[in-house]
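Researcher: Go.
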Amino acid sequence: MALAHHVLHLGPLDNNTYVLACTVTREAAVVDAGFEPEAVIEVVRRQGLEVRLLLNTHAHYDHVAGMREVQEAVGGDYWLHPADRPLLDRLSEQGAAFGFPPARAPETVRDLADGQRIPIGGESVEVLHTPGHSPGGVCFLSGDSLWAGDTLFAGSIGRTDLPGGSFAELERSIHTRLFTLGDGVRVYPGHGPATTIGRERLDNPFVGERARLA
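Model: Structure:
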């Protein structure tokens, strides 16, 4: 078995929203629904999936704003790392700072924890706490697939100039939690194209080996 993987490129910031589904049970998780929740709902219904989980890699507006609408349409328990609760509590304030409309947070927040395994049907994802872009930033690992939110991008990293951000923390998270994974692990980021751990460990201009030697 393996998790089926659907990616949607949505909204003015070209966010990646992921729908992960067990191919046997059809149980699913939605990861980071920020903009255009109707597109996510359409995929879930077209594929005949049963949403059990709504997972956020972090609580920035562009990754959370659509989660409540998805929840009201197709269900799912909402999960977030507790260190990002202050960001969730200021969701509409975050949006207003960038000219976006108010948004409602999902109901009943369940706490993610480092090392936790969350089942999706007959499969599961492991939670990796990777602070730096935000205090409660996490990645989700399943086999050779990593859903990395805004921790690591193809050729870049998440910005650290927002409240709670820290370049030192982000660099440490990437080096100790992500670059220790196999080079063949496929990275699915919150924005932009997919990449691999091996490519970023070597060539990432901010945290890769060549950057450290420059």
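Model: The chain has one domain: 3-213.
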